[in-house]
Amino acid sequence: MTKNSSNIMALAPNTSNKRETVCIFGTGDFGRALGQKMIQSGYPVVFGSRSLRTSSLIPKEAEVLSHAEAAQKAAIIIMAIQRQHYDFLTPLAEILRGKVLVDVSNNLKINQYPESNAEYLAQLVPGAKVVKAFNTVSAWALQSGTLDASRQVFVCGDDMEAKQMVMDIVRALGLTPLDQGSLLAAQEIENYPLQLFPMWKFPIFLSLGLTAFFFFYCLIRDVIYSYVYENKDFSFFLAISIPNRICPVVALILLGLVYLPGVLAAIVQLYRGTKYRRFPDWLDKWMLCRKQLGLVALAFAFLHVFYTLIIPVRYYVRWRTEDRIISKALNNKTDPFNNTNGWLSDSYLALGILGFFFFVLLGITSLPSVSNSVNWREFRFVQSKLGYLTLILCTAHTLVYGGKRFLSPSSYRWYLPNIYMLSLIVPCIVLVLKFVLIFPCLDKQLTQIRQGWERNPRYSEQSNYIINKSAV
Ligand code: NAP
């Protein structure tokens, strides 16, 4: 290919793109990691430090000066220093006037101080334009380059121009700035890195609680009862049989609990005749963790599948099968083929396979990479329609598994029903309520309410009502 003038122009260095010098106060872990990343992105970097001795850890392309000298060399100063040392800035107030001060600090506890670190910095140096940024990116991630999980940089500040300058740097480093508004948002941004799986706590504790409850329930019903009344030691059930009973039960209850808040929300909206009133806090929180509840349920369903796959290789199962065959052969006895049992067994397995298939499909569509590629209507269709189909299939799987055993007295040891019967309570309540809600008279009214219609318009006069998200 021949080079034409436009190609040569494109390859020529563009002097207008020359990056502005950035000053970093503090040569600690974060300051060095951010400095290195900035140098790689083409920014001249100058460090402001208490010690002018250079170390091999400091990028050699960077200058190390006193705080006052370094600050004079740049319009943007990044504060890679803990909040408790900020008072050294007070004598530098004049030099810092008009400069952009970027607060990257985090705290050790949520809401540790009455005001955010960024607001505190703004009070200490009133002449500077303070911007909060970078606190959710770790020094390790900056150094190792594995930023996939934390590419987002929350930025907030009162000065639009200063915020824009910081967001330009964020983009130049290959990260994604997310404007969170004024400096008032800093407290919330500082709390982000301190939160430990906030949406996962309820689903995980609930599933652990259910697992523990059903474990002791099965221990009493399946092991202790057999020991007391039949003098049989079935303690080995604790390894596989009981977990394989608990997993599907917990999975089904959690799946029911994913759809129960949506149904309750619909009932609340129908009762109030408006969507412009906040749901009770517990319902709001429950609705927010439905995805996590569903994913925990899916994990239990996977465990059930794995436990089921190994059933044929279990010693107890092989022994029981061989024993039955041998005793039939010795007694010269055969059972005629029972068509009903054939149907029940095949339908139970087919419903389980289909239920699990749709459950996995639901799980896949909740992944951000997949949900981002579908529009809101498609996402709702999958999560709502396919979700209910999954719930129906899994409930039917359990009902057919129970089959004739629901009425058998042996299913009620010590008056305790088998746990699969208990697992049907929540999903059946959800399905019955949903069935009632899709009656045209209720469905029509609910649709109108979700489109903004109000039975009692007095609510619209009150400005503090927040629009609830329509339940899926
Ligand atoms: P660090 O390794 O302890 O470094 C802090 C630096 O602050 C020191 O190296 C020192 O630099 C300077 N310093 C210490 N005492 C000082 C004082 N009395 N007066 C003036 N300067 C003082 O801490 P870091 O991990 O780099 O964290 C720095 C800030 O970044 C913190 O606010 C932290 O919350 C935030 N942050 C850290 C990370 C991370 O992954 N580490 C992630 C996000 C945010 P000189 O010796 O050069 O003066």
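^ NAP complex. The chain has a mean pLDDT of 88. Strands lie at 22-25, 45-48, 63-65, 76-79, 100-103, 129-132, 152-157, 176-179.
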